[in-house]
Amino acid sequence: MFILGFVLNLQAMLISREKWKTFWLRTNESCHYPILMIFCYSYAWWLLLMTLMFESCSYACLAMVVAGCSLTTLGNPLILPLPFTYAQEEFEALCFEFGIELDDVTTEKAIIRKEKHLEDEAEEGDEEVIYKIEVAANRYDLLCLEGIARALRIFTGREGIPVFKISNIPPQSMLKMHVKPETSLIRPFVVCAVLRGVTFDEAKYNSFIDLQDKLHHNICRRRTLVAIGTHDLDALEGPFSYEALPPTEINFVPLKQAKSFRADELLEFYKSDMKLKKFLHIIENSPVYPVIYDSNRKVLSLPPIINGAHSAITLNTKNVFIECTATDLTKAKIVLNTVVTMFSEYCERKFEVEPVEVIYSDGKASIYPDLSVTKMEVPLSDITGPIGISLEESEVIPLLNKMQLQAEKSVSADANHIISVSVPPTRSDILHARDVMEDVAIAYGYNNIPKSKPKCMTNGGRQPLNRFSDKIRAEVARAGYLEVLTWILCSHEENFSMLKREDDGKKAVIIANPRSSEFEVVRTSLMSCLLKTLKHNIDHPRPIKIFEVGDVVTLDATHDVGAANNRRLAALYCNVTSGFEEILGLVERIMKIVRAPHVPVGDSFMRPSEEPEFFPNRQCSIIFKGKEIGNFGIVHPEVLKKFGIPDPCSFVEIDIQALL
Question: Could you give the CA distance from residue 143 to residue 151 in angstroms, rounded to a whole number?
Fold first, then answer.
């Protein structure tokens, strides 16, 4: 009977393997675990057969449960899973509880068929099951399998929160990175760390590379803010130096190449590379390129483009040197912490990272990575109040622990209930008490939060400014103008020099890291936007009459964010003649409808002005209640020439917020 049970069990396991796709979380069980389970299953089948022979129904049912059989209820399979094993539906439910989403379960062949629009089976690819999981954009610790598996194990209580440590090594033995002053011209910051005694296999290695790619596309903003370089430390010799040199002085063999390239030749070579060509613009126009050398002047990397072949990582690599060059030091620290905390679990000393000292030319030195925890004191009411639940500290603390946040009770001076939260280096997304509250809500379960009716009733409605803007739009449209909608961002040149305006640095909001030269500043006027629209529609029949009601943004120290939005109306008239009278008629119409009927018009609302973007002596300021609220006139020919417009134009721009 036992032998028969053993055979039946093997057959059942093979059938189950084909029928059910399961997701195995990483565990520390030994390789003898499957053998032990087969033995137990065989015993269960023997028990089942024996009890059936003796017509003992209750023992038979028990044997089926122990054997892990699939019971069918109304056509739906009910799987009794083994520990640490999940059926697809169960894993999807677990992801939902944790706050992530199982988007799709597919295979490599299915992906290839979909991309190539094939109906038949694709020859390349395999049938390995791929789980596509959507995570929050700021959860960088969930961008790799190691992070997701660890987070889910902690969430389900099968693993404790890891404690990350910095290796205790004397300062004289610590690896050093010397930063040259010229790097401030291109990428001024660098942070480093070492993972010792790493054990790679193909899956771990692929996950290590994949995490870097995901970080490059996410927080690193396609390597513009941070670029990651990983190297085989055993092929290098410290100390290291981070320099910025002319491209003609840099020569090395890049990764996956056999010959040496000069840096400028290398960038030309990679212009045909589909993966790397999109990063070349970051440094190609710079007079100096960033480069990292070891003490033997071996090139580690040419960030943010490519690493050197000399220190390439392989499956046999045991000691990994990680460097992150950056234009944003804060993001560089987050990226470095993410990489080392995710893969230090494969180190010989688990969760231990060796630091590197970064020394700048001015003598300042910093040691990275910084794996210290951040302490937060959060009142209990700030956690339970917004969620709408009533919990004690003893109930909230386990919920925080499930989300990898160590917590303990604390009492403030005024005897309020305070929870002291320790934020690990993996949770860079925790910035405020509201983030702590959100994690408690996730761990508690959104479906478990009781529903309640709002304590107050409000009627929604449009803001007065939006209602007034719609009325202005309707009035201008009735005058024969066509409304356009343009970007609120524009280039610095379009906002200033092309309009003959000077930038005094006190008006425009400048984008710190613009994606392109077309989006460098937040517009301070609607004029350039309408002129660009006219340029791209210059072939339309004359006259061209367009307008826009939109916001501009200017610096304003009186606002908490340092800038203020301002709603404006702008209209442009283009014809073979200037059409000044057309714009004047529109201005008079607008001013007429916004004045209360019983208020006399009084003095003229127009005064001569001297704005550089308008033709001299063909322009006016618009005055309302003693305040200048706009300008109109014939656009200066030099402005039209810069925008490529051959015909004369008249333009008006009014601050409609001042008309309310």
Answer: 11
72, exposed or middle or buried, with CB in 10 Å at 0-12, 13-18, 19+? exposed
Rounded distance, CA 265 to CA 263, Å?
A: 5
pLDDT tens figures, 32-45: 444 444 444 454 44
Is there a shared CATH topology between the 374-447 domain and the 464-659 domain?
Answer: no
Rounded Cα gap, residues 93 and 90, in angstroms: 5
**Type of residue found at 348:** E
Tokens, residue 584: 């004047």
Beta strands 240-245; 289-293: pairing state: antiparallel
pLDDT in tens, 562-581: 899 999 999 999 999 988 89
Nearest to 564 by CA among 648, 657, 479, 498: 657
DSSP state of 520: S
Q: Taking each helix axis from N to C terminus, what angle separates 33-53 and 2-19, rounded to the nearest 10 degrees? A: 120
Identify the CATH number of the domain defined by range 165-368: 3.50.40.10
Displacement of CA 473 from its chain's centroid (Å): 37
How deeply is 539 buried, as exposed, middle or buried, from its count of CB atoms within 10 A (0-12, 13-18, 19+)? exposed
- Collect all residues with Cβ–Cβ distance below 8 Å to 508 and sequence separation of at least 6: 492, 495, 496, 521, 522, 524, 554, 555
Query: Dihedral sign, CA of 255, 256, 260, 266?
Result: negative
User: Are the beta carbons of 407 and 418 closer than 8 angstroms?
Assistant: no
CA distance linking residue 392 with residue 417, whole number of Å: 9
- State residue 53's pLDDT score: 43
CB 95 within 8 A of CB 101: yes
Which stretches does DSSP call E strand in 520-575?
A: 521-522, 544-555, 563-574
Cα 46 → chain centroid: 55
Model pLDDT for residues 109-127, shown as the tens digit of each residue: 777 777 666 655 545 556 7
Structure tokens at 178: 């010397």
Domain 464-659 has CATH 3.30.930.10: yes
DSSP 234-296: GG--S-EEEEEE-GGG-EE-BTT-SS-EEHHHHHHHGGG-TTTGGGGGGTTTSSSEEEEE-TT
- DSSP reduced 3-state for 513: coil
Q: Across the strands, what pairs with 252? A: 261
What is the C-alpha separation between 287 and 62, in angstroms, rounded? 76
Single-letter amino acid code for the residue at 337 = N
Burial 407-446 (b: 16+ CB within 10 A, else e): beebeeeeeebbbebbbbbbbbbbeebebbbbbbbbbbee
Considering only the top CATH level, what class is 374-447? alpha beta
| The domain made up of 2-155 is a member of CATH 3.30.56.10 | yes
| Ramachandran angles phi, psi of 72, nearest 5° | -115, 125
* Rounded Cα distance, 605 and 592, in Å: 11
